[in-house]
Amino acid sequence: MNDYINQATEKFAALLKKQLERAEKLNAGEEFTDFAALDKIVIGIIPGDGIGPIILREA
Q1: How many CA atoms, within 13 angstroms, populate the side-chain half-sphere of residue 16?
Q2: How far apart are CA 29 and CA 32, in angstroms?
Q3: Cβ proximity of 47 and 56 under 8 Å
Q4: What per-residue confidence (pLDDT) applies to 49?
Q5: DSSP of 2-57
Q6: Given pLDDT bands bounded at 50, 70 and 90, which one contains residue 55?
Q7: Are 35 and 41 within 8 A, CB to CB?
Q8: How many Å apart are CA 5 and CA 11, to the nearest integer?
Q9: CA of 37: how far to CAs of 23, 27, 42, 59, in Å?
Q10: Mean of the pLDDT values across residues 20-42?
């Protein structure tokens, strides 16, 4: 049982490290999109992406 916990912990740590590195890159980037200043924002969704039929219908 401890092996499963250790494996899961290692995988989660690796995932968390990648996401923190990604966040640092985003925060350090010079390009910034001010979405509040845009006339419109286009968001693409497709059925089957896990969003759920209710959300998809409303979107």
Answers
A1: 6
A2: 7
A3: yes
A4: 66
A5: HHHHHHHHHHHHHHHHHHHHHHHHHHH-S----GGGSS-------TTSSS-HHHHH
A6: confident
A7: yes
A8: 10
A9: 23, 19, 14, 21
A10: 87
